[in-house]
Design a protein that fits this description.
Number of strands: 8
Structural class: mainly alpha
Helix content: 40-55%
Number of domains: 2
Strand order of the largest sheet: 1-4
Length: 270
Amino acid sequence: MIHIDTTKLEKPNQKWLDKSAILLQRLGEAKNNEDRHRIIDQNHRIWKLLKDRLKELSHGKCWYSETKNPYSHLHIDHFRPKKRTEDIFDKLNPIKDGYWWLTFDITNYRLCGSVGNVKKGDHFAVKYNRVLQPGPISDEVYYFLDPVNKEDVKLLNFDNNGTVKPSAPEELEKWDHDRAKYTIEYLDLNYLDLQEARRLKWQETTLIIKEINRLNSIYNTEPTNQNKNNRELEKNKLRVMLSPEKELTSTVRSCIRASGEDWAYKLLEE
């Protein structure tokens, strides 16, 4: 998962905004959920018109998986489901109305590979302050990690098998741990093809780290400019792999961090 700075999102043109305002009014005036769902289904192309703008923020990558292919075709995910929600933790009333008033709200859109979006479906568990009608949503305490939240992105970690895991220890930070676990499951972030892509990326990163350690040893024994340049050329490979347009940068970061090397921590701080 990568952090997405939505302040850089190009706003829709006035025509789109006017259309979405009209549709929101129609949704509010609808007599029942059946009518609302019909309006939503008839106008699904509206949010798809913004896909290219969302792709620009992530260099064409899924915001959750950081990939273009292993996680399949990109969808626009309504972070808060538009028609209905399913909360697995609410045993008495797991199915509720969706956040229909956010259907045409660009702030509710996330770019997601089809694998994750299909698995996510209507799932949206809320621990406290669920909003059931149009109104402020800022007080909701929900389970899904959100790529537009910089702190949420830090709650996932990866291992050498390409497996994504909660970074927060369950016994010390249970809420953060539970949120990460829920997100991994209901976005299928350990989907086998995606996991294999991360494993290979970790393997590639490890080889470069080993070569840097070898060249560093040579440089410390014989500190010539050529030996220093050779080492920097290898480090530059990692810098490229960490650049925003590259895939699986979080996996690369986890691998570099796992090396425990002082130079690696400094590189991550750049």
